[in-house]
Amino acid sequence: MSLKLTSEQLLRLQHETLHLDEQADLFDSLKKRLPDLISSTSLHVVGTLRNDGLGWVSDLKVTGTITLPSTRSLAPVELPVDLNIEELYVLPADLPSQDELEEMDQTVITIEDDLLNLEVAIEDHIILMIPTQIFSEDEIANQTMPAGEGWTVISEDQFAKVAEENAEQPNPEFAKLKDLFKDEDE
């Protein structure tokens, strides 16, 4: 079975629970949405899709690994993917009112173009799970910062300390300007 189901297929499965155990290679589609993506293993998707009267509820477990560059050194860093996805998919005609949506304790997604594409949902959740800062194990353990000829990266704490030290010292260029207008003050 595929991770893409037409509304016709869903209507045929209305009284059955669909059990999923799929390998999904989403590298190409993820790469379009995450240009920095270096690699992705095939993702293992296990779960069910069932009709609850209002729509179809997906209950999926997705595992695998994606590789992205470190935000500090650009070295490749493997990030484990271990997601639980539970969402409710409804046909446009069955979409609950805004008040009903606010009372629901589930994410409700409208099925568009008569196609329920679970691959897009998986991609969305992978993108949402990526941390804003990605560090290699070495960078975490040693707090190493990249450096080059005449430059070095410093932490925010170090930057704040340097800025505080520099703020306390008067700027010698401004002191020269102050002497420039001495005659006018007298």
From TrEMBL:
Region called Disordered, residue ranges: 164-186
Name the record gives this protein: YceD family protein
Residue ranges with Basic and acidic residues bias: 175-186
InterPro entries per the UniProt record, alphabetical: YceD
Organism domain of life: Bacteria
